[in-house]
Amino acid sequence: MIATVIALAAYAFLPSVVPAIERYAVVGICLLMVIALVVYNPHRLTRESAWSRRAEIALAIFILVANQIALGETIVRLLNKNGNGYELLLASLQVWITNVIAFALMYWVLDRGGPVARAMVPRPKLALADFRFPQDEDHDAVDEVARGSSKKADWVPNYIDYFYFSLSNSMAFSPTDTMPLTHRAKLLMALESFAGFVLLALVIARAVSLIG
What we know:
The chain is mostly helical and 212 residues long. The chain contains nine helices and two strands; from the N terminus they run H-H-H-H-H-E-H-H-H-E-H.
């Protein structure tokens, strides 16, 4: 929830090419979904219903799609050199930060049936994994490493794990320590890498032109 609020705050208040009224509408809708999910699970993720599962997926998709629209608009402005250069660079930063958080949120709600399932469902009954983490294969490593593995400690990923590999995927443009296993995971990571690469290339080009 903290990461979602940070993404929404960046989307609402940092310079953006998206009109203010549209940004505030997106933020308002997302905050309503966030409040509903927090009220349903105020302390820990201990229960899930059909509507709450759909709401968490809808929240992730809504933030992700809204930011891809902002990404497209930013790319057009960067290519056409429209508007204030410094504001465009800040808008690019907003898009990039929100992208990292939004993709992490998307991975978090999809993998192994979602966060509630990972916390409550016995491992043999979990849905198919979308990602393979280092802990999933560390059970035969040295003892101090193996004790924290999925097999021996019943470890499951939390949001920080998804945020870390979303960040590394946006910076390295490829998987680092976490591997995608399903088609949807590979497509999402490919989209994130491509968006990060294009945005970074155009921002560098814009920055060089401003210096010149």
